[in-house]
Amino acid sequence: xxxxxxxxxxxxxxxxxxxxxxxxxxxxxxxxxxxxxxxxxxxxxxxxxxxxxxxxxxxxxxxxxxxxxxxxxxxxxxxxxxxxxxxxxxxxxxxxxxxxxxxxxxxxxxxxxxxxxxxxxxxxxxxxxxxxxxxxxxxxxxxxxxxxxxxxxxxxxxxxxxxxxxxxxxxxxxxxxxxxxxxxxxxxxxxxxxxxxxxxxxxxxxxxxxxxxxxxxxxxxxxxxxxxxxxxxxxxxxxxxxxxxxxxxxxxxxxxxxxxxxxxxxxxxxxxxxxxxxxxxxxxxxxxxxxxxxxxxxxxxxxxxxxxxxxxxxxxxxxxxxxxxxxxxxxxxxxxxxxxxxxxxxxxxxxxxxxxxxxxxxxxxxxxxxxx
Length: 372
What we know:
By secondary structure, the protein is an alpha+beta fold. 22% of the residues lie in helices and 33% in strands. The protein has 6 helices and 25 strands. Strands 2, 3, 4, 13, 17, 18, 19, 20, 21, 22, 23 and 24 form a 12-stranded mixed beta sheet that branches. A 7-stranded antiparallel beta sheet has the order 7-6-11-12-14-10-8, with no helix packed on it. Strand 20 (302-309) and strand 21 form a beta hairpin. Helix 2 (39-52) runs antiparallel to helix 3 (64-87). It is globular.
């Protein structure tokens, strides 16, 4: 036996011993899975966008008729969200899927992504395992008493890249920031949202953009004045990321704005925070990504997701279809004026790029004293 074969048999043995046993669970084909997109909400949001996007330096004037229509659409949107969530409200199945997910992680089988996707457990293994019958889709499914979909991919992507974005005044969510790491040129990420911590001005971004505390942050690049330093970073350096998030203390005099950049001269007004749920609409705005422009949104179709990269597992993320590039890490996830969380990674799921983010409730419980 080669070393690779020994490891493969070991993984298979662990799988059989640790994973749930029971009736055969048929693998869910991607084409047969439930469509989690909320088309009604997307159409309403397209109609609502002109009433709630604010132009920079220009107060939006709404007539009584405009206000009445805006309020009607807001009510219709909330109902569309509630109706859509109700379709997938199955606490018993969710509990079973969560148990199966933890058992799979405990098995020790290497994975990229594992999490809840509607009415099934989604698992993404590396493409190198695709021909390995011992960890095949059928082998895993036969040991799980829940619906399962297994795919093979190249893994999650995080990282940095250069940008040509301008110096932003005021600071808003979704703009480029650069974190200076000792003598390096800097790591490029995105500002998630201006956010006070115990009344002190600052902003949120992804924890993996930093190597530690007190690193200097610039906007957009190191050729510009510094705007803050990472006095609070909740990135752990063991085998688990409790919250891939960081709060940066603002040390500049640049005004901040409770908004997320849309395009030159306009921004989404953020009026509060929201705890997202499966089926909710979500948008991403990072320094490269344009999914947050106007009404383009998608439904959250993956919850309680653990993503693995470089031996570090990030837990408790959520996912939705959205393009994501290196440098979008730390970007804002939001919808209809509500901030929802911090974008941290991307992976291809069933042929569709998915953005994974740390939901607001997880961020808020990890970093005390946060508020707009």
